[in-house]
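The following record pairs a protein chain with its ligand, pantothenoic acid.
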Amino acid sequence: MLLAVDIGNTRIKAAVFEDTVLAEKFVFDKNDASVEAEKIFQKYPKIAHSILSSVGKEQDSLFLLLKEKTKMFGVNRDFTFPFQNNYSTPATLGIDRMVLASGAVMQFPGCNRLIIDAGTCVTYDFVDSENKYQGGAISPGLRLRYESMHNFTAKLPLLYPEMPDKFIGNSTAASMHSGVVNGLLYELEGFISQYKQQYQDVTIILTGGDADFLAKRLKNTIFANSNFLLESLNFLYLYTIKK
Ligand SMILES: Nc1ncnc2c1ncn2[C@@H]1O[C@H](COP(=O)(O)OP(=O)(O)OP(=O)(O)O)[C@@H](O)[C@H]1O
Ligand SMILES: CC(C)(CO)[C@@H](O)C(=O)NCCC(=O)O
Ligand SMILES: [K+]
């Protein structure tokens, strides 16, 4: 059994895998990391291996625990990823984006892929059919948009994401929901259309904490899978590390 751990900018996501099957997924706060991980090991004593990727912030206690309990593999920049990296600043490319690109290459061979991760930030990553990683875009995530508007104005309240029923917001709340949610949906549709125009056949994968919420309203055909990063870690372990 494998424990895959994704340390994001806000939360930690972990999943227990038995070969290619995801047995259970866990989401927890960074402050509870080692306590929650201990619970996972109690529930699944057969976990012998782990794979971890982090957007950068250190999680020393979790790291030590994984090292103590499992044969741990930490994904870092020196790893031989299954794509050619054409980013002009590869040293600053997020590890999470590299894991997502790897997962897309392994799960969707031979096609152009656009991976969209709607998390703290929304990232767009494009890997062409020759497995060349080209780059993409980074924009503020859903929650970040609400929080920024509240934090950087005098009058705007802090709201939680709500699907607007109207396009024309007729109150402060309705205007903010329309601006944030419809705004992000237009952004997604706009990017997707542009990639499709340029590359015709593009497989689109939507993941991250807001994937399910956003997928409901997207017109384009996409694969929505909020576990895509964890599954990509499992694929990396199964097909590039284990063998
Ligand atoms: N308890 C929660 N805490 C934070 N975000 C939440 C929570 N529940 C739902 N979300 C939604 O999930 C989004 C964040 O996604 P996710 O959990 O993938 O981010 P993350 O942990 O920072 O990971 P990453 O850094 O990879 O984006 C937010 O925009 C928010 O709308
Ligand atoms: C963009 C985020 C914050 C998304 O999690 C992360 O991938 C990151 O810190 N990236 C570094 C910058 C870059 O990818 O070019
Ligand atoms: K993200």
